[in-house]
Amino acid sequence: MSSWLNVSALLTDLYELTMSQVYVERDMLAPATFSLFVRKLPQNRSFLLAAGLWPLLEALQDFRFSEEDLAYLESLKLFKPTFLDYLKNFRFTGEVWALPEGTVFFENAPVVEITAPLPEAQIVETLVINILNIETAVATKAALCVIAADGRPCVDFGARRTQGLEASLHAARASYIAGFTATSNVLAGKLFGIPVTGTMAHSYVESFPNEEEAFLAFGRNFPENTVLLIDTYDPLRGAEKAIEVARRLSERGIRVRGVRLDSGNVIELAREVRRLLDKAGFPEIKIFVSGGLDEHKIAEIVSSRAPVDAFGIGTKMGVSADAPYLDLAYKLVEYDGKPRLKLSEGKVTYPGRKQVFRRFDPSGLFYEDELGLREENLIGNPLLKCFMRDGRLLMENPPLPEIRKKAAENLKSLPEDIRKGQRTPSTRISEKLRALYSETVERIRKVL
């Protein structure tokens, strides 16, 4: 399998390699388990939506140091020949347990747990955090937009302002998982099978002598997808021109599908444009809105009952503007069969290989999560699944619509106060995990 990411194994932090040289030199190759989790949700998030697992799994399968990579590392004069030989034959041979993509999760829940020989699990840390951070952050932001839109379609317009070209692909993929219906990103459409969509820019309208000519030319070229941008000069005059063009195109059997507003007071403009369209006999023409949208602006539009039919959402979703990163921690929780943990103030971790057990109330809504050890058999649905063993995938990458459906089901299962950010649930810790934590702390303090 070849990952679309095409990631070099050098995309790691230097200290992952310096630590690993020491591990190899001291023959510290026993299995190590690292747990990736979010210590604390961003201030304006009451849940997170897991995304990015399959790009990560594919990247792990392809993770190699090329001859050029090794030559560069040798040129740094930091690494011993024995360690470079180790890297020459490096393959990820570990086991990966993870939350399936589209799963809602909360603080302290493991998103991924990786068990592999210590140097392997250490070297892939940067890759693991990077991929899951961006897709989960964007998927969560997109999910909030979908919730706010209350059934109205949301489309990804974020490619041009994401933080890098690759980031635009992650954002398109993550937003589709979260419930967006399409993307403007053509490469994302090719790679992931996401429906692509697009209308026109103001520059297109400006390049013609007048709006009518611009609209007519577009309609004749794209008779099945005629959406007209009406606010280049004056939105209401633009709407009137769109109506004139709709009449002329209808004579050719072409139906204008919609008009788009990208600026101004879109609530009032949408009402007036709707009035004009209906009066002219075009109740079927939809009104699309874009421009600086996020879940808060969308909620304002929806609550105002403005006649907006769909949203194009770009910058604020594509970079998850109000929560652009997650407090993800990738921590050693077991090595050579013994539990491990970190005791730094404010950064305590729970030891051991873990599982999350989810419970629902009688109506089928989320009730609580309990974090326990993987071997426990607690009440609830165990969320983490084994996706990779011995460096080999245990299942095929599911179709993206299947992941999208799972995300929709997870979001629907949340009580209204969590969906709307009014309550952030805490995760229960099992008695057995609490006991292991106390035992491990006592053992560590004896040798301090």
From TrEMBL:
Q: Which residues form a coiled coil?
A: none
- Pathway annotation from the record: Cofactor biosynthesis; NAD(+) biosynthesis; nicotinate D-ribonucleotide from nicotinate: step 1/1
Give the EC number(s) listed in the UniProt record: 6.3.4.21
The reaction(s) annotated as catalysed by this protein in its Swiss-Prot or TrEMBL entry are: 5-phospho-alpha-D-ribose 1-diphosphate + nicotinate + ATP + H2O = nicotinate beta-D-ribonucleotide + ADP + phosphate + diphosphate
Show where the Nicotinate phosphoribosyltransferase N-terminal domain sits: 10-133
Q: Which residues form the Nicotinate/nicotinamide phosphoribosyltransferase domain?
A: 154-322
Q: Which UniProt keywords apply?
A: Glycosyltransferase, Ligase, Phosphoprotein, Pyridine nucleotide biosynthesis, Transferase
Q: Which domain of life is it from?
A: Bacteria
Provide one Gene Ontology cellular component: cytosol
Q: Which InterPro entries match?
A: Aldolase_TIM, N/Namide_PRibTrfase, NAPRTase_N, Nic_PRibTrfase-Fam, Nic_PRibTrfase_pncB, Nicotinate_pribotase-like_C
Task: Report what the Swiss-Prot or TrEMBL entry states about this protein's PTMs.
Answer: Transiently phosphorylated on a His residue during the reaction cycle. Phosphorylation strongly increases the affinity for substrates and increases the rate of nicotinate D-ribonucleotide production. Dephosphorylation regenerates the low-affinity form of the enzyme, leading to product release.
Q: Per the UniProt entry, what is one GO biological process?
A: NAD+ biosynthetic process via the salvage pathway
Q: Name one GO molecular function term.
A: nicotinate phosphoribosyltransferase activity
Report the protein's function.
Answer: Catalyzes the first step in the biosynthesis of NAD from nicotinic acid, the ATP-dependent synthesis of beta-nicotinate D-ribonucleotide from nicotinate and 5-phospho-D-ribose 1-phosphate.
Q: Hey, which family's this protein in?
A: Belongs to the NAPRTase family.
What protein is this chain from?
Nicotinate phosphoribosyltransferase
> What is the source species?
Thermosulfurimonas dismutans
